[in-house]
Amino acid sequence: MKVDWESLKERLLSACPSSCFYKVYLNIQSSAPSPSPVYLLKFWCFDQRGSLHDVTKVLCELEMLIQRVKVMPTPDGRVLDLFFIMDCLDLLHTKKRRDDICEHLMAALGDYECSSRTRVRGQ
Q1: Nearest CA to 101 among 38, 42, 34?
Q2: 65-82 pLDDT, tens per residue?
């Protein structure tokens, strides 16, 4: 949203008597939050058509930002998916949030054998 400050000032001056008008200076400091850490989600399951889509959909529904995905199929019919993710809710450091993500992933993939693990990238 773009604000026309000069126009706003003119409207305020015309609506207020000059004796009531005070100059106000805003000291806007950068209050941008520090970026959320990048987590590595390792997801291991049998390779099935659409599984990458299903996992991606679950992560987006859980308000995760996916920065990068690496998919590594294995000769025995399994696949290891590495998701580099950030949590928009900034709660992924809690066990409850990690467990919640794993439960949603297991539910999305049904009865297929799968496992997942989450940790801060680089640890």
Answers
A1: 42
A2: 999 999 998 898 888 888
Q: 109 CB contacts (<8 Å, ≥6 apart)?
A: 45, 48, 51, 54, 55
The H-or-E segment that residue 12 falls in is helix 5-15
Encode pLDDT of 14-50 as tens digits. Answer: 665 554 444 443 344 445 566 778 888 888 877 878 8
Q: Are 109 and 54 in contact (CB under 8 A)?
A: yes
Query: How far is the CA of 118 from the CAs of 25, 62, 81, 88, in angstroms?
Result: 46, 14, 12, 15
What are the structure tokens assigned to 50, written together? 């659409």
| Structure tokens given for 38 | 């990048």
3-class secondary-structure state, position 89: coil
In the block, residue with structure tokens 């009865």: 111
Nearest-angstrom CA–CA distance, 83 and 98: 14
Q: Which two tokens stand for residue 100?
A: 């919640």
What are the phi and psi torsion angles at 79 (to 5°)?
Answer: -140, 140
SS3 111: coil
